[in-house]
Amino acid sequence: MKILAIESSCDETAAAIIEDGRKIISNVVASSAAMHEKTGGIIPEMAARQQVVSIIPVINETIKNLSLSRDIDALAVTVGPGLIGSLLVGVETAKALALLTGKKIVPVNHVLAHLYANFLEEDKNYIKPQFPALGLVVSGGHTELFIMEKINNLKWIGGTIDDAAGEAFDKCARILGLSFPGGPAIAAEAAKYAKSEIRNPKSEIKLPRPIIGDDSFNFSFSGLKTAVLREVNKLKETEQFNQITIVQLAYELQEAITDCLVAKTVRAAEKYKVKSILLGGGVAANKRLTEKFKSEFRIHVPPPSLCTDNATYIAAFAYYNYHPVDWKKVSAQPSLEVEV
Ligand code: KG4
Ligand code: ZN
């Protein structure tokens, strides 16, 4: 079964065709991230306008020489959560295609779908996740933990009580004067930390690990932003805010965020006696995060290009949670919940 999926929840316009939830037939992503780099963050109106510009060329390139009416069995589209203007572009386009072809649409929750990038059989070395599994979605807007009893059974067990992990990376990068999106920029600065002149224990900056030791499976990252701002202001007062202290702060921030993510996830994995841990979302592309997990547990991480937003996992989710509906029943839901 071939599903054509559309994803437009934020600043990526994406479409993909996936066969039987596993095989990538085509995958096209257009991103307006470069445009948002200039403003240091996403301006929803600008993102939505770019979605309008990109959606038809992206779908056209995805379908290539296939026939939408003959070769595609069903459509899937992200209905939420996300930015309303951006979501509407993908949702209304999917409805138009359904009206045109008579095909059904599978409405998809973007956050849950991130985990299904782990079921795409990218290459020969692919290893199938074992159930029960634990899923950690770490993106720009979400940090959520799920128990996956089987491939189509997800139960939410915890999540962030304030900012998402990716949001903490993005906001702190901005405070440090680094580029957007902040995750890769912080990771690149943190990688310079190994140099000895930077790694000076006397000037080491320490950041908190909020709620790392409590009994919940929740996360809290907004305090880190305040802590980074406080450190930066202190450094500026003593004229010590420079390339070296930026690297130290970036390193410590990455350590703090990844420590919190790993501690809670591993504790949940032990409690629920899971057989594997699945990561998904843009922050799952962080090498330090996966390095820390690997020393603790057997994990599955999609390749970086499938961690960040694209439509492959939207189609995979739709295949494994196949509940197609008539186009009239599909609408954008910007505040769609993740507790299912
Ligand atoms: O899943 P995604 O592409 O979009 C959302 O659904 O939000 O995630 C984007 C987030 C951004 O906050 C970005 O800074 C973060 O993922 N990110 C990273 C890395 N690559 C992207 N964070 C840490 N390290 C990375 N290498
Ligand atoms: Zn996402």
Automatic annotation (TrEMBL):
Keyword Nucleotide-binding: no
Keywords associated with the record: Acyltransferase, Cytoplasm, Iron, Metal-binding, Transferase, tRNA processing
One GO location term (cellular component): cytoplasm
Keyword Hydrolase: no
Main location as per UniProt: cytoplasm
Binding-site residues, Fe cation: 110, 114, 309
Cofactor requirement: Fe(2+)
Catalyzed reaction equations: L-threonylcarbamoyladenylate + adenosine(37) in tRNA = N(6)-L-threonylcarbamoyladenosine(37) in tRNA + AMP + H(+)
GO MF annotation terms: iron ion binding; tRNA N(6)-L-threonylcarbamoyladenine synthase activity
Subcellular locations according to the entry: Cytoplasm
Residue span, Gcp-like domain: 23-315
Residues that coordinate or bind substrate: 137-141, 170, 183, 286
Coiled-coil regions, chain positions: none
EC number: 2.3.1.234
GO annotation, biological process: tRNA threonylcarbamoyladenosine modification
Bound cofactor: record note: Binds 1 Fe(2+) ion per subunit.
Alphabetical list of PANTHER family matching this protein: TRNA N6-ADENOSINE THREONYLCARBAMOYLTRANSFERASE (PTHR11735), TRNA N6-ADENOSINE THREONYLCARBAMOYLTRANSFERASE, MITOCHONDRIAL (PTHR11735:SF6)
HAMAP family linked to this entry: TsaD (MF_01445)
Family: Belongs to the KAE1 / TsaD family.
Primary role: Required for the formation of a threonylcarbamoyl group on adenosine at position 37 (t(6)A37) in tRNAs that read codons beginning with adenine. Is involved in the transfer of the threonylcarbamoyl moiety of threonylcarbamoyl-AMP (TC-AMP) to the N6 group of A37, together with TsaE and TsaB. TsaD likely plays a direct catalytic role in this reaction.
Protein name per UniProt: tRNA N6-adenosine threonylcarbamoyltransferase
The organism's taxonomic lineage, starting at the top: Bacteria, Candidatus Gottesmaniibacteriota
